[in-house]
Amino acid sequence: MNFRIGNGYDVHVLADGLPFWLGGIQIDHTKGCVAHSDGDVAIHALCDALLGAAALRDIGTLFPDTDAEFKGMDSKILLSRTIGILREHGYRIGNVDVTICLQSPKVKDYIPQMCRGLSQTMEVSLDQVSVKATTTEKLGFIGREEGIAAYATALIYKEKEV
């Protein structure tokens, strides 16, 4: 098999009064991400990891924030389209791993729901999806709750053609 690994990163500014989408679910919070789409940093980082593993650029290239089609779009749609592109190129997902960096709110109780939703969107088994979260111990822009970031790693593969 042909294994490939990709890494993704995304960051967004947080602002009062906006909806807060993370890992495909809406979380009750006083702040949300300033973004062209719904601003889901976890899914954006995941899309970049998947696309990077396949050497297919990134979500900014495929789904530009200058295109009105993507204004306010649910990031699960971007992830679904990303999976479709990978399949068109013959790739399958081995596993994905996402780390969310935010000071608050605490999201550990939401992680099982995020994993279920991501696995359904990507059409993979639940044991192929890992999501975890950490704070920055009140350091930097994340610690001051000015922004949020996410990192993702993806293993994809293409079975050898016979």
Structural commentary:
- The model has no long low-confidence stretch (mean pLDDT 95).
- Helix 1 runs parallel beside helix 3.
- This protein has 162 residues and is of the alpha+beta class.
- The protein is globular.
- The chain has helices at 41-53, 59-62, 75-88, 111-122, 140-143; strands spanning 2-16, 20-22, 25-27, 31-33, 92-101, 129-134, 147-158.
- The N and C termini lie close together (11 Å).
- Strands 4-1-7-5-6 form a five-stranded mixed beta sheet.
- The protein is 29% helix and 32% strand.
- The longest helix is centred in the middle third of the chain and has 14 residues, at 75-88.
Per-chain topology:
Layout: E1 2-16, E2 20-22, E3 25-27, E4 31-33, H1 41-53, H2 59-62, H3 75-88, E5 92-101, H4 111-122, E6 129-134, H5 140-143, E7 147-158
Parallel strand pairs: 5-6
Antiparallel strand pairs: 1-4, 1-7, 2-3, 5-7
